[in-house]
């Protein structure tokens, strides 16, 4: 199973949607709330190259945000990246 990391804020609807998709697939994820600590948000921005949330990493690879995650799923590629395909 792949390691999934997601940077979020509590009220972000895109964060909520991305986490819901991962939960529907039965994928555990490590969530980092960037809303209260500017240093953590700065570290996320440095790592992802983007300031917006969510920012999603799978096995250390930057996937992008919610739209990117859903696009991968729509193309049938997300399950393979997550290690869900046999």
From TrEMBL:
<protein>
    <recommendedName>
        <fullName>Glutaredoxin</fullName>
    </recommendedName>
</protein>
<comment type="function">
    <text>Has a glutathione-disulfide oxidoreductase activity in the presence of NADPH and glutathione reductase. Reduces low molecular weight disulfides and proteins.</text>
</comment>
<dbReference type="InterPro" id="IPR011900">
    <property type="entry name" value="GRX_bact"/>
</dbReference>
<dbReference type="InterPro" id="IPR036249">
    <property type="entry name" value="Thioredoxin-like_sf"/>
</dbReference>
<feature type="domain" description="Glutaredoxin">
    <location>
        <begin position="4"/>
        <end position="63"/>
    </location>
</feature>
<keyword id="KW-1015">Disulfide bond</keyword>
<comment type="similarity">
    <text>Belongs to the glutaredoxin family.</text>
</comment>
<keyword id="KW-0676">Redox-active center</keyword>
<keyword id="KW-0813">Transport</keyword>
<keyword id="KW-0963">Cytoplasm</keyword>
<dbReference type="Pfam" id="PF00462">
    <property type="entry name" value="Glutaredoxin"/>
</dbReference>
<keyword id="KW-0249">Electron transport</keyword>
<dbReference type="InterPro" id="IPR014025">
    <property type="entry name" value="Glutaredoxin_subgr"/>
</dbReference>
<dbReference type="InterPro" id="IPR002109">
    <property type="entry name" value="Glutaredoxin"/>
</dbReference>
<dbReference type="InterPro" id="IPR011767">
    <property type="entry name" value="GLR_AS"/>
</dbReference>
